[in-house]
Amino acid sequence: MKDSIKLQANQVALNGTLKVPGDKSISHRSIMFGAMAKGKTTVDGFLLGDDCLSTISCFQKLGVDIVVDGHEVTITSDGMESWKEPDEILDTGNSGTTTRLMLGILAGSNIHSVLVGDESIAKRPMKRVIEPLRQMGAKISGRSGGQFTPLAVQGTDLKAIDYTMPVASAQVKSAILLAGLQATGVTIIREKEVSRDHTERMLRQFGATVNCKDGVIQLQGGQKLAATHVEVPGDISSAAFFLVAAAIAKDSSIRLEKVGLNPTRTGIIDVLKNMGAQLEIEVEPDTEDKEPIGSVSIKTSELHGIEIGGELIPRLIDEIPIIALLATQANGTTVIKDAEELKVKETDRITAVVEELKKLGADIVATDDGMIINGPVTLTGGVLKSYGDHRIGMMGAIASVISTGPIEIEQASCISVSYPNFFEHLRNVSTSETLR
Ligand code: S3P
């Protein structure tokens, strides 16, 4: 099957209003929490991306009743005690969030299960989750002593730990919290740099008490979750592609509505502002534990290079590929540092971003913990690899809005991992005849 897409050089204005699909992190968690809680949980705005569908399929194999009706999902559960031991493997597909958070959930269950993902998941480090879970008493075995999938989990009784996070990772933090919910005692997690806090917020939405102060999170084990309604905001990580597109294309103006504006995720907004983008934000009034949402409007902008590092990195880790493209159009040098985590994403995103943008003529070099980009540079066309990584594929596709020649993206279908209607949205905002 041919799995590539060719986009014509498309040097035209981009205009319009979009509602990007639901947030991937929150969609995953809505299924997991709904399956752990007793009662009927309803979810609105669910992301029907491949990763979140993997999460649904894993819980269906555990016997949880999940009904999908468009972007509305209903999860009916009698709590974890009612789950059945699966007689098949749990396939987590391309999803690191599914794999890591499920390890935390299953560790304290009363069943045996085996988790397997695709070839990208098989390379991603699991030791970072297995290690703290084993300290809690978890029985997990796997390839290379439990460092890689396939992983087998024998659910057992867990005890709370006091854990200082060695890397800023919401997946690791969430796995520990979900295990901690089932453990005896108070689980304490200490974060040097704050990572996305969707798990903490959702714990409260489902009726649990969790204390977060000065980078220390405390959760009493044994609390039961109560089913509720979850509204999933638009994914700011998906919105980022169109924010950058409008900032770099000529005579453009795009408005994105109902986007999640959780401060642990809005690093991309800070970067755009700091680079000089013309950006307006309207935040909708929110309540404490709900996810903040709002609309973001952006226009073609005169941009300048900046340094991006430190505590900002966890707040924009998934946006770095598209930020690198943005930096090719900014005056001066952009330095991205402290981002070694990019090497263990769906692919090594330092290598992938640098290699693919170089093919288009970008002035970009890889460093040990990021990249250095000089701009502005006119980008040419070319044939780009996605490496099976949705965000690398979308970065290449957005480059076509300013490139002087056509851009072909290989293995483009991976984009459906997080943004199934990406190309439809690109067509909707483009004024180009070839895209319409
Ligand atoms: C996610 C956390 C981040 C992010 C990933 C989704 C989550 O990973 O890159 O796309 O849903 O918790 P890490 O926590 O490993 O940094």
Automatic annotation (TrEMBL):
Superkingdom of the source species: Bacteria
The main enzyme category here is transferase
Q: Classify the main location.
A: cytoplasm
Cite the Enolpyruvate transferase domain residue spans from the record. 12-426
**Which catalytic residues are annotated?**
318 (proton acceptor)
- Residues annotated as binding phosphoenolpyruvate: 24, 96, 124, 171, 349, 391
Q: Which GO terms describe its cellular component?
A: cytoplasm
Task: Tell me if Electron transport is a UniProt keyword of this record.
Answer: no
Please tell me where 3-phosphoshikimate binds in this chain: 24-25, 29, 169, 171, 318, 345
SUPFAM superfamilies (alphabetical)? EPT/RTPC-like
Q: Does the keyword Lipoprotein apply?
A: no
Task: Name the CDD domains for this protein.
Answer: EPSP_synthase
Q: State the UniProt keywords alphabetically.
A: Amino-acid biosynthesis, Aromatic amino acid biosynthesis, Cytoplasm, Transferase
Its Enzyme Commission number?
2.5.1.19
User: Which reaction(s) does the protein catalyse, per the Swiss-Prot or TrEMBL entry?
Assistant: 3-phosphoshikimate + phosphoenolpyruvate = 5-O-(1-carboxyvinyl)-3-phosphoshikimate + phosphate
Assembly state and interactors? Monomer.
Family (UniProt): Belongs to the EPSP synthase family.
| HAMAP family on file | EPSP_synth
Q: What does this protein do?
A: Catalyzes the transfer of the enolpyruvyl moiety of phosphoenolpyruvate (PEP) to the 5-hydroxyl of shikimate-3-phosphate (S3P) to produce enolpyruvyl shikimate-3-phosphate and inorganic phosphate.
Q: What is this protein called?
A: 3-phosphoshikimate 1-carboxyvinyltransferase
Q: Which organism is it from?
A: Paenisporosarcina quisquiliarum
Q: What is the lineage of its organism?
A: Bacteria, Bacillati, Bacillota, Bacilli, Bacillales
